[in-house]
Each structure stands twice: as C-alpha cells, then as structure tokens.
Amino acid sequence: MKTATISLDMVKDSDGWNDLGHSLGFDHEKINKVFEYGEYANLTIEVNENLEIVGGKIHPKEVIE
Hints:
Layout: E1 3-12, H1 16-23, H2 28-34, E2 40-48, E3 53-59
Antiparallel strand pairs: 1-2, 2-3
C-alpha cells in the first residue's frame, strides 16, 4: 500500500497541546520543551492511500533528555 508523508509546522492548539502533555504526565517544563509556548507543535504525519494516518511524530522544539 502506498504512503505519503507531510510535515506540519507550528500547528496551534492553545489548550490541546498543553492538555496532551498533562495527560502524558509531563510537568510544565517538559511541556514547554516539546510544545512552543505550550501552544504549537511541529508534526510529521504518514498517510496511506485510504487517507488513514499510519504513522507520524511530534517533533519537540528542544532535545528531550
């Protein structure tokens, strides 16, 4: 099955990214390392020919240790 990848930069979701981080147990400092201002995320999404998301990644703004 064919797949294609798209990169989406600076996707804003003021509450969503912050809530996602809290749901994953991140503290405020780690949320800000992953999401710019706790509001923006850079994503790579892999989609198949049926337009289903089959892979992807959120790219942290800083290296997470």
